[in-house]
Amino acid sequence: xxxxxTEPQNQTINPDKLGIFSDYFSRLKVxxxxxxxxxxxxxGASPLELFTIVFNLVFIGKNFFQGVVRNQKVGVGKDAxxxxxxxxxxxxxxxxxxxxxxxxxxxxxxxxDYSEEVLIFDDSxxxxxxxxxxxxxxxxxxxxxxxYLKGFRLLTLGWSDGNSFLGIDFAxxxxxxKKNRYNEINPNIDKRTCGYQRRQEAITKSTMHxxxxxxxxx
Length: 218
Prior knowledge:
By secondary structure, the chain is an alpha+beta fold. Helices cover 35% and strands 17% of the residues. It contains 8 helices and 4 strands. The protein has helices spanning 22-28, 30-36, 47-60, 64-69, 78-86, 92-108, 194-202, 210-217; strands spanning 118-127, 138-142, 147-160, 165-173. A hairpin with a 4-residue loop joins strand 2 and strand 3 (147-160). Helix 2 (30-36) runs antiparallel to helix 6 (92-108). The protein is globular and about 50 Å long. The chain starts with 21 loop residues before the first helix and ends with a helix. The relative contact order is 0.12.
């Protein structure tokens, strides 16, 4: 389903005026969840404003380059958005867990006592064939095309009641075998950060993630 925003595509978005997402973000308290996940303002635009800009790209049908880099009316510089997305200290796993938990409570209130709920694991190929310098990029076999490509495997844990699907957690996986990897972990990254833990997670066998991901969702 393609969703088109009725807001101007070059609109400057700020935390006090979130356009079509205002009620949605307010009800879910997205700003508070960002703060509780260590995603806080250091300088310039607030995390909520930056998050909204990136979130908005999906609904206006533009990629990062079109919607941020070339869009001079977006209100913030591209470096601020890059730093926001790439910061190793931000705990995005905690944020997605908080967000999915809040959405689940809303869905749960609409279900009857006979609804069956299940957890689902999905392991899909994440194609980044145009990339060259991405950390832990590796040669992955795509079972749908029966070809090798540059990319990752995206392991996703989701919840479903048979009608709705809600993503709870994910792990972007590389190869545990060093010879299959094109690039290694940036040696300058702080080993105490969430970002470093994610990188270590990426080179761990996928079967090792199943139990921790389920426990984390609880």
